[in-house]
């Protein structure tokens, strides 16, 4: 006799079936809603989802202890997935917001040794334990916002030793925190100052030393590159990503964030990258190339807002047939937030994505963007029991009541980890 977690009587159960491939076009609006819906979880895995009536029938066949979670008046969705973060870092950069408000450009701050290089200095100085300590607070905050899985990139070490340290910290967080952390190696996040006069030498270091060490120690599943004018060129990005591919890494690209027509989206499609991320300045050709590929567009409307730039052309991408996912881009420079609910609001209000598309982009399509579509992203028998109960009568209210955190309960692998908007059995992070 085992123990079952029984979530019952949700005003709307949003199931989001996952077997159809990444959702595109009108498929992004198909939520699979059950009114008065129930979910049963056993040993962390969903064993039933459907109507209350069918759930009662299912449970009558079982002789187990049942923990009942009353979801009346709540919308229940799959746990939110954030497929693009830089959460492992030390320090903060609020001074840069003021500089940008006075007219400084994000990329110019980086060129002057600030930005990513500023965080690289504090991250190099921090011990692994200190990185874990600072990043754990961010993970707790993610959980309070309904996020049950994140991707986390390295890229603030920029030396072999410090990149490995950052990735080990991500692994320690994955091992010790309810949130699943999927690691990405991003040594090519910026050229460190000691290579200012020899940027190709840094590309060689990434390819010849960092990538093999990360692969050997199995510290990351993906490899990402900041493919951008003044950072890593198309040719350099291609060299790094092709080398990563040969070592078995799956690929991601920070593509077309700042410069017009740089060709990042086209490169992602050509290399068969799992995702192309940012895409604020993606060209028509780039969007068409993504539409013809299996590459997911991970859009980051919080970053556009925080950098005071025009958001990505989500409507154009969805119309073209590109599969779109959403993310916070949580990082200390261009998007210091953990609030997926706010990002979902921003996607709706700044990119005109509908409330239904927004949910798809934050669950099943986000799962595809991190290669986890078989285990999460939808409420289906056999998937992880990762659920969020929102204080809302229907899913449209999640975007209507903007800027508010409506997360009431979070369930991770069948365990209640947030209840009444408060972490269970964990110290609350100080805000
Ligand atoms: N653009 C590059 N990387 C991050 C920002 C990192 C930082 O500024 O620290 C991003 O995705 O926005
Ligand atoms: Zn990023």
Would you write up a description of this structure?
- One of its GO terms (biological process) is L-histidine catabolic process to glutamate and formamide.
- Belongs to the metallo-dependent hydrolases superfamily. HutI family.
- It is an enzyme of class 3 (hydrolase).
- It is a single chain.
- With 431 residues, the protein is an alpha/beta fold.
- It folds into 2 domains: 4-78 and 377-423, Urease, subunit C, domain 1, CATH 2.30.40.10; 80-370, TIM Barrel.
- Helices cover 37% and strands 23% of the residues.
- The protein is built from 16 helices and 17 strands.
- It has helices at 52-60, 94-101, 106-111, 116-125, 128-144, 160-176, 199-216, 234-246, 264-271, 284-292, 301-306, 314-320, 340-351, 355-362, 364-369, 397-400; strands spanning 3-14, 33-42, 45-51, 65-70, 75-78, 80-82, 147-153, 180-188, 222-227, 250-255, 275-278, 296-299, 324-326, 387-390, 407-412, 415-419, 422-423.
- The strands form 2 sheets. Strands 1, 2, 3, 4, 5, 14, 15, 16 and 17 form a 9-stranded mixed sheet that branches.
- A hairpin with a 2-residue loop joins strand 15 (407-412) and strand 16.
- Helix 6 (160-176) runs parallel beside helix 7 and helix 9 (264-271) packs parallel to helix 10 (284-292).
- It is globular and about 70 Å long.
- The two termini are 42 Å apart.
């Amino acid at each position: 006799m085992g123990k079952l977690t029984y979530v019952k009587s949700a005003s709307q159960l949003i199931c989001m079936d996952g077997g159809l491939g990444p959702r595109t076009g009108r498929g992004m609006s198909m939520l699979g809603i059950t009114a008065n819906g129930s979910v049963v979880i056993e040993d962390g895995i969903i064993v039933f989802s459907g109507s209350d009536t069918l759930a009662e029938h299912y449970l009558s066949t079982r002789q187990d202890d049942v923990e009942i979670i009353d979801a009346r008046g709540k919308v229940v969705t799959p746990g939110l997935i954030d497929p693009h973060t830089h959460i492992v870092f030390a320090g903060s950069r609020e001074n840069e917001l003021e500089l940008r408000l006075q007219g400084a450009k994000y990329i110019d701050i980086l060129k002057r040794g600030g930005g990513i290089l500023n965080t690289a200095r504090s991250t190099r100085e921090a011990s692994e334990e200190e990185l874990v300590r600072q990043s754990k607070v961010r993970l707790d905050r993610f959980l309070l916002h309904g996020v049950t899985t994140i991707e986390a990139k390295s890229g603030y070490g920029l030396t072999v030793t410090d990149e490995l340290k950052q990735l080990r910290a991500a692994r320690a967080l994955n091992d010790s925190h309810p949130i699943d952390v999927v690691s990405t190696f991003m040594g090519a996040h910026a050229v460190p100052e000691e290579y200012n006069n020899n940027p190709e030498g840094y590309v060689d270091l990434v390819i010849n030393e960092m990538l093999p060490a990360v692969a050997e120690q199995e510290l990351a599943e993906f490899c990402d590159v900041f493919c951008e004018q003044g950072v890593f060129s198309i040719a350099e990005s291609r060299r790094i990503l092709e080398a990563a591919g040969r070592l078995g890494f799956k690929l991601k690209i920070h593509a077309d964030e700042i410069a017009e027509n740089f060709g990042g989206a086209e490169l992602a499609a050509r290399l068969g990258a799992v995702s192309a991320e940012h895409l604020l300045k993606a060209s028509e050709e780039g969007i068409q190339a993504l539409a013809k590929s299996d590459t997911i567009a991970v859009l980051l409307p919080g970053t556009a807002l925080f950098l005071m730039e025009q958001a990505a052309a989500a409507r154009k991408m969805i119309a073209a047939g590109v599969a779109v996912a959403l993310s916070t881009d949580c990082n200390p420079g261009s998007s210091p937030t953990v609030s997926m609910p706010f990002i979902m609001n921003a996607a709706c209000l700044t990119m005109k994505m509908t409330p239904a598309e927004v949910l798809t982009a934050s669950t099943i399509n986000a799962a595809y963007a991190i290669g986890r579509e078989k285990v999460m992203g939808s409420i289906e028998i056999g998937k992880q029991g990762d659920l969020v109960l929102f204080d809302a009568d229907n899913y449209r209210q999640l975007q209507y009541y903007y800027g508010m955190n409506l997360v009431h309960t979070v369930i991770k692998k069948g365990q209640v980890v947030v209840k009444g908007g408060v972490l269970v059995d964990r110290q609350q992070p100080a805000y």
